[in-house]
Design a protein that fits this description.
Elements: E1 2-8, H1 21-28, E2 32-38, E3 51-52, E4 62-63, H2 65-74, E5 82-91, H3 94-101, E6 105-110, H4 118-123, E7 127-130, H5 140-151, E8 184-185, E9 188-189, H6 199-217, H7 219-225
Parallel strand pairs: 1-2, 1-6, 5-6, 5-7
Antiparallel strand pairs: 3-4, 8-9
Length: 233
């Protein structure tokens, strides 16, 4: 069973959105498991302190290395990757999601405050992962995004075995537009090719739409797919 173990200061945030729709049904059906551990249980002193002022000065607080190390060690080491949700981490991509979904799960640390002491990141081999170029109040929402992306790929979670094969990023392109009934909507009709029944033409149209959307909206993805041709001198 795919297992997600969450280390957080706010375990009450889970399962949250993960408890509904596909991920919620899969959780209830035993296709994956979720556990949360409160980092504060390993805090220091009477007030269970988990943070301290940054060495060298500066604003905010930093989660202590010794506290977080104890929380991680309490889970044991079963070989699952240990991830730290962080805006400075490696961007989460669909290939990365597929690799995680194919494994046994993950241990996910949700940072807070100004961040986590670098020494525990190194000592416990935490892999920093980012869901985008922006900063959130903590890692919990990022952890939910990562888990949802993985869980939907687990066997039996989506309706059909091929449900995820033509989605955005699966082939390096954004997904083509979708249509359904009614045939006409506010003066806009479903493209004729989609009503033609000609599967080869439909596939070609969808491919062309994906390529056009990717070029227009994500030139960074397009450049990775199409090598830059040398200019004629």
């Amino acid at each position: 069973m795919w297992r997600a173990s969450i280390l957080t200061l706010y375990p009450e945030m889970f399962p949250g959105p993960l408890g509904v729709s596909l991920s919620g049904e899969a959780l209830a059906g035993g296709k994956w498991a979720l556990e949360t551990r409160n980092i504060r249980d390993f805090g220091q002193g009477r007030h269970r302190a988990v943070d301290d002022t940054p060495a060298g000065g500066g604003p905010g607080m930093v989660i202590r290395a010794d506290v977080l190390a104890q929380a991680i060690d309490a889970l044991g080491d079963d070989g699952r990757p240990r991830l730290l949700m962080s805006p400075r981490g490696t961007p989460l991509t669909q290939p990365h999601v597929r690799a995680l979904a194919a494994g046994e799960g993950a241990v996910i640390v949700c940072g807070r405050f100004e961040g986590v002491d670098q020494r525990v990141i190194e000592a416990r081999s935490l892999q920093e992962v980012s869901i985008g170029d922006y900063v959130l109040s903590g890692g919990e929402l990022g952890a939910m995004v990562l888990i949802d992306a993985c869980v939907r790929l687990l066997p039996g979670v989506m309706g059909g075995e091929t449900s995820g094969e033509e989605e955005s990023f699966e082939n390096g392109l954004l997904e083509y537009p979708h249509y359904t009934r009614p045939l006409g909507f506010e003066g806009r009709d479903i493209p004729d090719v989609l009503r033609s029944g000609h599967h080869r033409n439909i596939a070609a149209w969808r491919r062309a739409q994906s390529e056009a959307l990717t070029q227009a909206r994500r030139p960074d993805l397009w450049e990775k797919r199409v090598p830059t041709r040398p200019r004629n001198k």
